[in-house]
């Protein structure tokens, strides 16, 4: 950190705020417009030195230390060239003479508002600004900001032709290739590979490099190189390409640091390259106060994406003199959005389906979960009745242990799933938590971690001592999702159809009259009975 700042300061960089070598902050470097105009060579000298430094980027000398003992496929440690500690230059070119860099490649992005779907959520982005790329900047950007092709310019001589390459240095992917560019008129060049924005899905601050070569003549690419360049993920040797095509340079380079967002994570998840959605769930969960977890467990590092879906059959019911009908639907829990789900969709007879995916490169369930035993808990820490649960000892809605091969259906069920029916006006949050076990768990033993004084229908669910369980069995939290469900028409239907103080249950409900008209009479269904019988016993017990 100190060495890096001293280096930047030596070349005219003023840092006002820096949290890490490439952390957030504001600065004016030797390559910012007005400094570059006064002293271009100072900018280029600083640029060359950073580009040759093997200590500054995630794939450099610190990689061995930071990823020591990690799975080679772990998202933040996946490195297609892990055996070498690289600089920007050695990784992109193997060998290159940075002394040939004699001009500055200007790159300017225009970020516009828009929306995208990522990791189960719809995101709205309202920001609009211009990003002038500065290779000495400490700023880190997100893929969504850089999705549209920027504008390029550089100082050129009449009659010169150039080849431009945009390259993902960390993952060694080609992002764009344009040849036979007259001067700096990129639009007049021949596009071999159209622009694809940075798609780093990881938490690494990954450099994307803009590379410019000077051509000796008009370039005929040939089928060999066209085929190679069209494969974005090809392990291309840029030095070999430059030598074979008699290119000079690179005569200019620039780069931008990019860290993952849900936009890139979704694209890479769909292609099967990597699923880093757990990282964004991790950030959202960190903002919550989970007092039912031990202190050390709250230091989160989630590595598994829990895709919980609910296949809801068509249903109809009467609630407080109003008939309701809901068509069949399938929905997935969305912890990155508002998370609100109606009680009718998560009722007891709608069994949640849980699909698990590890945050690895080229996710493979058999490989990623080999030899792992898992525990699934669903907890409600918002009970208004301390007898049944509170913030530290929540109510237990579902508990499965000894899950093998990431298949929840083959685990041992300690407590069957029971759906939400919150009695109070405030919505409850229902957390689905996935833990990695260190060994087999005795289901009968773990079932004893609940309050003895509990009404019969809820035996084994009240005041679940989750903190004690996690500590005793050394459980590691690796995945999470959640939803919020409030007291709505379905919950009132559950309560009232068994004669529970109808006026109190329906007080304030829209359309309620006492008594209900005959037109709103409704025959109670067997499925509803299955869901509500336990709730009714519970409510009678607390009266």
UniProtKB/TrEMBL annotation:
Pfam families: PBP (PF01161). The chain crosses the membrane at residues 521-542. Keywords: Membrane, Transmembrane, Transmembrane helix. InterPro entries: PEBP (IPR008914), PEBP-like_sf (IPR036610), PEBP_euk (IPR035810). Gene3D superfamilies: PEBP-like. PANTHER family: PHOSPHATIDYLETHANOLAMINE-BINDING PROTEIN, PHOSPHATIDYLETHANOLAMINE-BINDING PROTEIN 4. This is Phosphatidylethanolamine-binding protein.
């Amino acid at each position: 950190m100190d060495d890096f700042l001293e280096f930047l300061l030596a070349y005219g960089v003023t840092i006002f705020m820096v949290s890490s070598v490439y952390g957030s902050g504001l600065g004016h470097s030797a390559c910012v417009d007005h400094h570059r105009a006064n002293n271009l060579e100072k900018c280029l000298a600083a640029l060359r030195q950073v580009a040759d430094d093997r200590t500054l980027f995630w794939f450099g000398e610190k990689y061995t230390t930071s990823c020591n003992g990690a799975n080679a496929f772990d998202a933040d440690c996946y490195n297609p060239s892990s055996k070498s500690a690289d600089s920007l230059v050695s990784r992109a070119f193997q060998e290159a003479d940075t002394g040939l860099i004699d001009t500055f490649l200007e790159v300017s992005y225009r970020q516009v508002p828009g929306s995208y779907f990522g990791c189960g959520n719809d995101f709205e982005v309202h920001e609009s600004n211009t990003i002038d790329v500065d290779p000495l900047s400490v700023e880190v950007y997100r893929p969504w900001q850089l999705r549209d092709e920027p504008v390029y310019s550089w100082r050129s001589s009449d009659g010169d032709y150039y080849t431009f390459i945009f390259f993902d240095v960390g993952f060694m992917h080609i992002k764009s290739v344009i040849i036979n560019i007259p001067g700096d008129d990129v639009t007049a060049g021949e596009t071999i590979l159209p622009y694809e924005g940075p798609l780093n899905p990881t938490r690494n601050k990954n450099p994307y490099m803009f590379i410019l070569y000077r051509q000796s003549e008009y370039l005929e690419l040939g089928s060999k190189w066209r085929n190679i360049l069209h494969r974005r993920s090809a392990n291309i040797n840029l030095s070999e390409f430059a030598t074979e095509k008699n290119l000079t340079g690179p005569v200019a380079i620039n780069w931008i640091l990019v860290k993952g967002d849900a936009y890139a994570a979704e694209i890479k998840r769909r292609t099967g390259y990597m699923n880093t959605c757990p990282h964004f769930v991790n950030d959202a969960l960190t903002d919550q106060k989970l007092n039912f977890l031990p202190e050390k467990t709250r230091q989160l590092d989630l590595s598994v994406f829990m895709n919980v879906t609910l296949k809801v059959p068509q249903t109809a019911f009467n609630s407080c003199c109003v008939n309701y009908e809901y068509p069949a639907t399938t929905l997935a829990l969305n912890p990155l959005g508002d998370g609100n789900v109606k009680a009718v969709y998560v009722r007891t007879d709608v069994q949640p389906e849980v699909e698990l995916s590890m945050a690895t490169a080229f996710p493979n369930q058999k490989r990623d979960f080999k030899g792992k035993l898992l525990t699934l808990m669903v907890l409600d820490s918002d009970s208004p009745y301390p007898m049944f649960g509170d913030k530290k000892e929540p109510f237990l809605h579902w508990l499965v242990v000894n899950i093998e091969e990431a298949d929840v259906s083959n685990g041992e069920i300690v407590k069957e799933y029971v759906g939400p029916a919150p009695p109070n006006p405030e919505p409850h949050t229902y957390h689905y938590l996935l833990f990695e076990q260190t060994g087999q768990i005795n289901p009968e033993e773990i079932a004893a971690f609940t309050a003895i004084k509990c009404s019969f229908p809820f035996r084994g669910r009240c005041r679940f001592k989750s903190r004690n369980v996690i500590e005793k069995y050394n459980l590691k939290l690796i995945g999470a999702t959640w939803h919020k469900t409030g007291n709505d028409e379905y919950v009132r239907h559950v309560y009232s159809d068994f004669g529970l103080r109808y006026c109190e249950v329906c007080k304030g409900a829209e359309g309620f009259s006492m008594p209900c008209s005959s037109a709103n009479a409704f025959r109670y269904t067997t499925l509803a009975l299955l869901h509500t019988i336990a709730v009714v016993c519970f409510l009678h017990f607390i009266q």
